[in-house]
Protein 1
Amino acid sequence: MSSAVVSAIQTIYEPDTPLDLHRVEILTLARHRAVDSKFVAGLVLDHGARHPDMPTQLLNVKVMTCNISLEYEQTETQAGFVYSTAEEREKLVESERVWLDERCRRIVEFKRQACADGETFCIINQKGVDPLSLDMFAKEGILCLRRAKRRNMERLTLATGGSIILSLEDLETSMLGYAGSVKQVTYGEDKYTFVEDCPNSQSGTLLLQGPNKLTTEQIKDAAKDGLRAVKNAVEDGALVPGGGAFEIAASEHLLHKVVPTLKGKTKLGVQAYAQALLVIPKTLAANSGFDVQDVLLKLQDERNSTNMAIGLDVKTGEPMLSAEQGVWDNVRVKRQGLHLATVLANQLLLVDEVMRAGKQMGRNAQPNPEMMG
C-alpha cells in the first residue's frame, strides 16, 4: 500500500505546482486480499462497453474523450412535433436517425484518418450513445464507453493526453490521447475498463482490494490519509522523526534548556507545557500494550545519553532511532498541533479569568436601596 501511495504522488507531481489529489481516482473492489491493492498509472473505469461485439482488449490505442450526444434527446424548450399520418411520423423518426448516423459516420471517418496500421481506437463519452450507434462502432472495431463520470473525463485527458472534444467540427488528431493498452475485465457481475501504459501520465488510479466491503472501506480511508501525508511531506520539503521522538526531544529541551533561564510563574507554565508534550509517547505506549512509565523512562534515558531523536518501537516497546527505522511525521502536522494546543490552553485560562472576575464583581456590588425598600 505504501509504495502504491508514493507512486500515485510521483505520477501527479509537477515542479512548482500544488499537488491536486483529485487527479488520483480511488476505486475499491471487494475481492482478493488487501495486499493485492495496486496503483495503475492510467485510469480504471467502473463500467464497460454496452455492445457484445465490441473488442474487449486493444493495443496502441488512440483515445477520443468527448462530451457529445449520440442518442435521441429531449428538446431544451417545451416544443412538440405534430403529424397527421403514420408516414409523417416515420419521416420524422428517419430524419432524427439520419442526424445521428451522420455524427457516427464523422467519427468513423476521423478514426480511419487518425489511426495508422497497428493502431486501434477507443471512444469514452460523457453523454449517452444509443444501441444503433454502438452497433456502427462495433462493426468498425471501435470500443465505445458511454456515460463516463465527469470527474473521470479530466483524469482521462491528464493520463492519455489530448483534450475533451465538445464538437465534431474541425476534428484534429492532436485532440486524441494515447494509451498502450485498453482492456475490459469482468469481476463477478461487474465490468471494469483499464486504460493503462500511458506515457507521461499525470493521473492515476489506486485500485484497492479486500475480502469484503468493510475491509475495503478501511483500506480506502488509510489510502486517503497516506496520500495527504505524502502530499504534506512533498510540500513541506522536510520531515520530523516520528514515534514520539519529536515530543520527547522538545520536552527535554524545554525542561533542561529553557526552564533554567526563566523566573516566576512563567517557569511553571513551561514545565506544564513540557509535561503535556509527553502525552504522545505515553499514548503510543498505552495503545501498544506496554507499561507507560517504564517506556517513558527508557525513552528519556536513551535520549539524554545519546542526544539523538529517540522514538518508541511499538512492536518491542524499546527505544529506537526513528530516522533509521523510517518512522516520520509531517512538519505541518506537528506545527499545527503545537499552535492549536497553545491557543486552546490560552482560551481555557481566559475563561477561568472571566469567571473569577464575574464572581469578584458580584461580591463588590452594593445593594440597591430602592429594591430593599
Protein 2
Amino acid sequence: MIRRRKTFFMLTSVLLIFCALFFVSCADENKLSVNGSSQGVAIKGYDPVAYFTDSKPVKGKQDLSYNWMDSNWHFSCKENLEQFKSNPAKYAPQYKGYCAFALSRGDLADISPEAWAIVDGKLYLNFNLDINSAWEQDKVNYIKKSDRHWAEIEGKKI
C-alpha cells in the first residue's frame, strides 16, 4: 500500500512537472501579438517615427522595414528606421497598436493610422477620426481606463 502511494505521488509529480514545462514553453506563443501581426505589418505599414518627427502619419516603405515583436515595421526613410532600431518602445504605439478608445471600454479594436495622438511622448491610435475626436475630449481619463484594462489583457492570446 505504501509502495503504491509512493508510485502514485511520484507519477503525479512527474506529470505536474511535465505540464508546467509545457505551459511555460507555450507562454510566448500565447501572448497577444502586435495589432496587424497576422498580416505581417504593424500600423498598416505606417512609419511610427514619423508621427513624432513629421507630426503626421506617413506611409512606410517595404524596403525600409524592421522586425520587432514578431511584426514588420515600415519606415519612410532610413533615419526613421535607425531611430526606431535604437529605441523601439519610444516610438511604438501604446497597447501594441490597438485602439485606445476601445481599450478604455475593455475591448480590442483595429485602428486607422490617420486617427492618432501623442500624449506625454507616447503614441496612441484609434479606430477612426470620429472616435479619435471623442477620445481627445477626455483623453487623460480614457488613458487611465485603457491602462487598467491593458494590464488585464496584455499577455492573453486573442
